[in-house]
Every structure is written in C-alpha cells, then in structure tokens.
C-alpha cells in the first residue's frame, strides 16, 4: 500500500517534491519524445495538481505546444511532464521517490516503438502508438508532433 504522503528529491537535493495520496503504480511511454528526453525508458506516475508540492530551482522545457518537461536547474534531474495549464495532471518521475520502488507497472504505451533492449514483462495494459492515439487524440503532446 502506498503511504498517504510521499517525499522525493532530485539528485542534488535542491528540488523537493511531496505528493499526497499517490497513485501507487507507474506507466511507461516509449514514444520518440519520451525516449529522447529520458535517454532510456520513460516511466511516470500521474498526480493531480492539488496533491503536489514543489520547492527548489525548477526549470522547464516547452516540448510541444501543449506540454512542458521539468528538470532541476542545478543537477538536471528530470522531474515531470505536464500540460501547461493549472488543472493539468503531473506525470512525475518515480525515480525521485523511494516509496515508488515497490510500485508495479500498470501500463505501457507506444509498445511498438520500444527499443529492443526494453521489452517489459508482465500482464500490465499495453497499447501501440496507433491504439493510444485512437483512444486519446488530444491527451498527449506526442499527437502534436506526429
Ligand atoms: Zn538537483
Ligand atoms: Zn511519450
């Protein structure tokens, strides 16, 4: 069971994040943008904006018309991806939070674009790029860039 409040930080410790009532699972995206930004496997977990508290030198890159990808301005650790509107959910990086070490993988998208080295096992939900775009035509920044 996830704890009610989890705390995380970037590599250098300058950015601190707390999340109340966290999801307790992670999802993976293998789209080209997430591969480039993460440098490897992009995993994240969703959190409503009112549950997230952030302090420290956050910088953000506007990665599309809709979304930005945030990182620590001191050490460069990736923090989250998010649409640029106040009500938008965060997609937070689980590696910042020790509590997330136990969380299962629940979903994997853009499976058909995954590098050969990263075939993830398990009975989690999987969707190809086409299946995902059909289901969420406006939900993800990747639709802007296809
Ligand atoms: Zn840092
Ligand atoms: Zn992606």
From TrEMBL:
The keyword ATP-binding belongs to this UniProt entry's keyword annotation: no
SUPFAM superfamilies: Mss4-like
Entry annotated with the keyword Lyase: yes
Domain CENP-V/GFA: from-to ranges: 6-104
Gene3D superfamilies associated with the record: glutathione-dependent formaldehyde- activating enzyme (gfa) (3.90.1590.10)
Domain of life assignment: Bacteria
Keywords: Lyase, Metal-binding, Zinc
Pfam families assigned to the protein according to its UniProt record, in alphabetical order: GFA
PANTHER family, sorted: CENP-V_GFA DOMAIN-CONTAINING PROTEIN-RELATED, GFA DOMAIN-CONTAINING PROTEIN
Family: Belongs to the Gfa family.
Protein name: GFA family protein
């Amino acid at each position: 069971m996830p704890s009610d409040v989890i705390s995380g930080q970037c590599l250098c410790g300058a950015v601190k994040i707390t999340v109340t009532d966290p999801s307790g699972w992670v999802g993976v995206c293998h789209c080209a943008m997430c591969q480039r930004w993460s440098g490897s496997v992009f995993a994240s977990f969703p959190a409503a904006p009112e549950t997230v508290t952030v302090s420290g030198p956050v910088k953000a890159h506007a990665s599309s018309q809709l979304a930005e990808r945030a990182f620590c301005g001191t050490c460069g650790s990736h923090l989250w991806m998010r649409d640029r509107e106040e009500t938008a959910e965060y997609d937070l990086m689980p590696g910042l939070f020790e509590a997330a070490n136990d969380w299962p993988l629940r979903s994997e998208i853009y499976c058909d674009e995954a590098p050969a080295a990263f075939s993830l096992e398990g009975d989690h939900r999987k969707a190809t790029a086409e299946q995902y775009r059909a289901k969420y035509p406006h939900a993800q920044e990747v639709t802007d860039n296809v």
